[in-house]
Specification:
Number of helices: 16
CATH architecture of the largest domain: 3-Layer(aba) Sandwich
Radius of gyration: 25 Å
Oligomer: single chain
Number of strands: 17
CATH class of the largest domain: Alpha Beta
CATH superfamily of the largest domain: Type I PLP-dependent aspartate aminotransferase-like (Major domain)
Bound molecules: pyridoxal-5'-phosphate, 4'-deoxy-4'-aminopyridoxal-5'-phosphate
CATH topology of the largest domain: Aspartate Aminotransferase, domain 2
Helix content: 25-40%
Number of domains: 2
Strand content: 15-25%
Structural class: alpha+beta
Length: 526
């Protein structure tokens, strides 16, 4: 796919690890070619006979692409369904289901791959030649990429806070994280260069990292998107030090305009597809002139997670090896999911899908706004630069000073997310009497995490749940878990707020309950 007028990727085959190099094509897949030959009587195949499958017809009632448009919905979704009707052979109105019930070649259905390629061209228009290969969601896709590129005991470059499943995968094989700090524009390119330039191979007991894992838009957990300018800088460093960029980007289409407080907030304007697409921040894939980006695309956040369907966009030298892994690990993604997605796109059209995404974006933007509204309603929110704990970026959530004093007391710092489903917070413990007590007890090795755990539990007792920031700490080995050992900022810890699923009322009530707990701890006389 996508080879016309494209740059030839540079040779990156030296990145393929020893295990992946040693993979042979599955011999069973080779013979399929002969089975299709004119006049061939195959006594060879092990395919089950399609007349013996117990499924005859599948009907799916689906929403229209504009069903989420806030101007004509009540309680979220407009009425009006259309039916995707998939039958077998002659009974089929469109797609013949039989093709999706049988074993496939491993790369996925040809038409679904064409769809993935068309989406890739419309959205990312990659400068270098690439291929799309289907996979069952980014979780498994990342596992295949680690199986392609990493050796045991390697380091992988990650954000300072990163998606835990990505790390949990490699802890058993001794892979560790090499974290790079980030600011409101995303991972620091200078920090990345410093890390790689000063890599001490014998001190670390491992070669310089060759892979960087990034959740580049609306990161899980930080909510931060890598800015356009920063992407170019990161890409240049990756060229200089020969890194492969793995872009795990499930929140890409959930990009929002800056937050405006409720009274001044304009209703979202409907955009044309061209306006919608051109407002999206360019992906690493879209600037990848060398073929060193492996992009993981997933329908989990745009259609639904139970599909277990997505695709790689990558240099053919990588998709060839990823296909070898696919043949023996997962085969084609589930046929019914492929059939559903193809039928949905036939019903909606590609522009219909972009309309769906645009409305989806508005829905999640609204949820982001509800959470930030609740912060403003229940706390004093001040720019970090003017706060009691001056810092250059973000906002600080404060409670009023004690005993009628005018000074605000800082509680947590955050950056307004321009994408995704999360607000990442840095709680500031310095003023908290209970924290100081814990810190003074000689037996406490990690007072920050001990107090964070107590605070988290106190909130849970009051029926409001946040995700502990410790879930997202980079895994650097069992001896690098305490705040001190990690070299993390003292007197603080993190929590992740998700605005993806609660209602507006639940968000407001949750933040109100949180404030009560905070008042108890932050309000106590020091
Ligand atoms: N990667 C990141 C960064 C995620 O946040 C998630 C889910 O939220 C996933 C991967 C899982 O994606 P999938 O459902 O495609 O496996
Ligand atoms: N389970 C799986 C398999 C997921 O991919 C996700 C989303 N990343 C979740 C659960 C939800 O996890 P979280 O709330 O940490 O994003």
């Amino acid at each position: 796919g996508g080879k016309h007028g494209k740059l030839q990727p540079v040779d990156l085959s030296h990145h393929i690890n020893a295990k992946s190099k040693a993979r042979h094509p599955s011999p069973l897949k080779d013979i399929i070619r002969f089975m299709g030959q004119e006049g061939m009587i195959s006594l060879a195949g092990g395919l089950p006979h399609p007349s013996l499958f117990p499924l005859e017809r599948a009907k799916f009632d689906v929403l229209s692409p504009s069903a989420l448009n806030s101007s004509h919905t009540e309680g979220g979704r407009a009425a009006g369904l259309s039916t995707l009707d998939l039958g077998r052979g002659d009974s089929s109105n469109g797609l013949d289901l039989t093709r999706f019930l049988q074993y496939g070649s491993g790369c996925g259905d040809r038409e679904v791959i064409e769809l993935a390629t068309e989406l890739t061209e419309r959205v990312h228009s990659p400068p270098a030649a690439y291929e799309c290969l289907l996979h069952p969601g980014n979780t498994n896709a990342w596992s295949k990429v680690v199986g392609l590129l990493c050796e045991d005991n390697d380091y992988v470059v990650v954000d300072e806070f990163t998606y835990p499943s990505a790390q949990a995968l490699w802890i058993p094989v001794g892979i560790r994280a090499a974290p790079v700090q980030a600011d409101a524009d995303g991972l620091s390119a200078t920090g990345l260069r410093d890390l790689l330039e000063n890599w001490d191979e014998s001190g670390r007991g491992a070669r310089r990292p060759r892979v960087i894992y990034l959740v580049s838009v609306g990161s899980n957990p930080t909510g931060i998107s890598i800015s356009n300018r920063r992407r170019k800088d990161i890409y240049d460093v990756c060229v200089q030090f020969d890194l492969i960029i793995v872009e795990d980007d499930p929140y890409y289409f959930l990009q929002y305009p800056p937050y405006t407080p409720a009274p001044d907030r304009a209703a979202p304007q409907t955009q044309t597809t061209t306006e919608f697409l051109s407002a999206l921040t360019p992906s690493f894939t879209s600037i990848d002139s060398q073929g060193r980006v492996i992009r993981l695309e997933s329908f989990s956040k745009t259609v639904f997670p139970g599909l277990r369907l997505g695709y790689f966009i990558a240099n053919p030298v990588f998709t060839e090896r990823l296909l070898r892994a696919t043949e023996v690990e997962t085969q084609d993604p589930a046929g019914l999911s492929q059939a559903f997605v193809l039928a949905l796109f036939q019903q909606w059209g590609m522009d219909g899908y972009f309309t769906w995404l645009q409305n989806l974006q508005c829905q999640y933007r609204q949820r982001r706004d509800w959470l930030l509204d609740a912060f403003h309603e229940h706390f004093a929110v001040v720019p970090a630069s003017e706060s009691p704990v001056p810092s250059s970026q973000g906002l600080v959530v404060c409670i009023p000073g004690k005993a009628g004093g005018t000074a605000l007391r800082p509680v947590f710092r955050f950056v307004e997310p321009g994408a995704g489903m999360f607000v990442w917070s840095t709680f500031l413990f310095e003023d908290v009497r209970r924290f100081q007590q814990i810190k003074q007890s000689a037996s406490q090795e990690d007072p920050e995490q001990a107090f964070a755990q107590e605070l988290w539990m106190a909130m849970a007792d009051d029926l409001v749940l946040l995700t502990p920031g410790s879930y997202y700490h980079p895994w650097q080995g069992a001896d690098m878990v305490t705040t001190k050992a990690r070299g993390a900022a003292p007197d603080s810890a993190h929590f992740r707020f998700s605005f993806a699923s609660p209602t507006e009322e639940q968000i407001h009530e949750g933040v109100r309950r949180m404030r009560k707990v905070i008042e108890r701890y932050w309000g106590a006389e020091a």
